[in-house]
From TrEMBL, chains A, B:
Keyword ATP-binding set for record: no
Family from the record: Belongs to the threonine aldolase family.
Record domain Aromatic amino acid beta-eliminating lyase/threonine aldolase: where: 44-297
Listed GO MF terms: L-allo-threonine aldolase activity
Protein name per UniProt: Threonine aldolase
Species of the source: Paenibacillus ihbetae
GO BP field: glycine biosynthetic process; L-threonine catabolic process
Keywords of this entry: Pyridoxal phosphate
ATP-binding among keywords: no
């Protein structure tokens, strides 16, 4: 299985037209971002200097918040956000989704470093609803919502539900924090600006290496008291680096380059999901994407599917899928997120790849 | 005073020959490091990939340790080192110098995030001795030694004293951690390799933006069990960035460029300290430097000295001092660290600057 896995990844990396994301994660990402940078530009020093302060100001404005702080990672930014709200309320209890990044990808930093207890709302298969929040029988300091909910394919609540959750939290003294790792990517679906969405939240984190495609880095935004506290915690975490400009310059560059393309990525995601859904035994989640991402579920085991996919990729040069992951029910899935690459794939090659995939799956079903 | 301070800094930044360090902290530092980097070079991904693993291996070898982990900051690396040793001993107590970086520059991250209690050894004016360690009347998990002790001018214990402290710690089940932010810079004075010095310690942190002059970044080294644990804590802290290569590439580049120059910087520091010490009312600490750094103490108030220095800098174009800091006894001091710049200053200009400084101080003393 390890061997198969490697071979799909190998095939993908050799395709003429990989579908996923913006491009390979190489040093070129940095070189392009720094191509026009003046060598005399002063570095930031421990959070000070025009290069960091200007970007923070522009991001505060884009997110409609009083202030913003650049962080090396979202992991650091979000733990700190929850810690600040817990300290303010004098209660180390928060609520979030069972598949929240803090719960499954951070080695329990929130618990180990901050001793904050999370209550898991909803369940692994669905979004948090207003009812889930209303039914909480314990007091919490902060509710974290991730928009879109990445681990279930990038789903979103109706905007009205979101407004109702926000109103409920405000009425009940619960701070609302936005895990907006993919915030910019959902603005076309909601038909709202980032600032309009953020207005429903007390604090917000956004990432610069998802849809934006930078190297790394995050912004945490909120009121000035909140961001001032976050800088103290940033130093405690070891995130107040002498200079963060490699990440700031690239975040800024790719933000400017791609912020206007979010609608295009969203439309393309819907198109691609439709092509997947037309194939035998394939279903996307959500069926109609609400951002630039979705999951593709295959009703076939990974062992059987992987060689078929390798054939399709090798024969057509179109990288439909870069990896597979097994699910509990012995089927498998992959994640797709649209960036600059999709529009570069010739439509006829794309169609051929889907036809071939559909044929191969149908043939395999007969065996 | 704020005005004077600004003006010395301004004068310094306009001098033809600033003395301190390697050069201005500008984007050029990154551009130079990436000049020969192939755009196709793959990025590191969450601690994996040749670009991070190769550098870690080479640093483990240079430090004579089993393994090494690249961290975005020393603040993060050192808190984690102490946490691992405390957890292993089941005792959240360590000892370090009162002017240790963790005590004065990290917003108490060690206490706030790790709940580790530090015992302050020695006092603010001198180094930790073997006797200080022997006299400890409480059990500790780990002793941190900073070599050289930056905040007192970069002083070092005799090597024999260091060996004796190491032997005592080993005999008494105390882990010994090296704050080696300036480790490479002390190898010429001790006449030992970095690995020989590190052999006295269980874990070691080194920095890449002090004598090495990179952008940011640190290495934490020790045995494989220790470094494996440090990776988990690195993720918890939010330091396991998707890609750290901007710091790794620049650390590697400047390490190769400057590791062979440490003896030169050390010899130049001794020369420059001698020139300061020949001036009226000026004394360096240590009198004879043991690394590339020292402090310069002036027996004059900052208000009186600053205009004199501004005149010297403006008249000679030699940047002897970039800032001043007041001390408790109403005199003042500055820190000097030697890098690539010192050797570029014409000797006659340097001598003229010191003559002028000496004259001005003597004249001021008569007023």
């Amino acid at each position: 299985m390890q061997q198969n896995k490697k071979s799909l990844n190998e095939s993908y990396s050799k395709t003429a037209y990989p579908l996923i994301g913006h491009g390979a994660r190489t040093a070129e990402v940095l070189l392009e971002a720094f191509d026009d940078v003046d060598g005399g530009q002063s570095a930031d020093m421990y959070g000070r200097g025009a290069i960091i302060e200007d970007f923070q100001s522009r991001m505060a404005e884009a997110l409609g918040k009083e202030a913003a702080v650049f962080f090396p990672s979202g992991t650091m930014a979000q733990q700190i956000a929850l810690r600040i709200w817990c300290d303010e309320a004098g209660l180390k209890k928060v609520a979030y989704h069972p598949l929240c990044h803090l719960e499954i990808h951070e080695e329990d930093g929130l618990k180990e470093l901050h001793h904050i207890e999370p209550i898991l709302l909803a369940d692994k298969d669905r979004l948090i609803t207003l009812e889930d929040v209303q039914r909480l029988d314990e007091r919490i300091s902060c509710l974290l919502l991730e928009l879109p909910q990445r681990e279930i394919g990038g789903q979103l609540p109706d905007y009205g539900e979101l407004e109702a959750i926000s109103a409920f939290c405000r009425a009940n003294g619960i701070k609302l924090h936005l895990d907006g790792a993919r915030l910019f990517e959902i603005t076309p679906y909601y038909g709202k600006s980032a600032a309009e969405i953020c207005a429903l939240f007390d604090s917000v984190y956004v990432s610069f290496y998802k849809g934006i495609g930078g190297i790394a880095g995050a912004i945490l935004a909120g009121n000035a008291e909140f961001t001032a506290k976050s800088k103290i915690w940033k130093r405690r975490h070891g995130g107040d680096l002498v200079s963060l400009y490699p990440y700031i310059v690239s975040s800024d560059y790719y933000y400017k380059l791609r912020i206007g393309r979010m609608k295009q990525y969203y439309e393309e995601a819907k198109e691609l999901a439709m092509l997947f859904n037309q194939c035998e035994g394939i279903q996307t989640r959500p069926e109609i994407p609400v951002s630039n991402m979705f999951h593709v579920h295959f009703r076939m085991s990974m062992e059987r599917l992987e060689p078929l996919l390798v054939d399709v990729l090798d024969e057509t040069g179109v990288g439909l899928v870069s990896y597979l992951r097994e699910t509990d029910d012995h089927s498998c899935f992959t994640e797709v997120h649209i960036g600059d690459r999709y529009s570069q794939v010739p439509k006829e090659d794309l169609m051929m790849a889907f036809r071939l995939l559909d044929e191969k799956i149908k043939r395999a079903a007969l065996v």
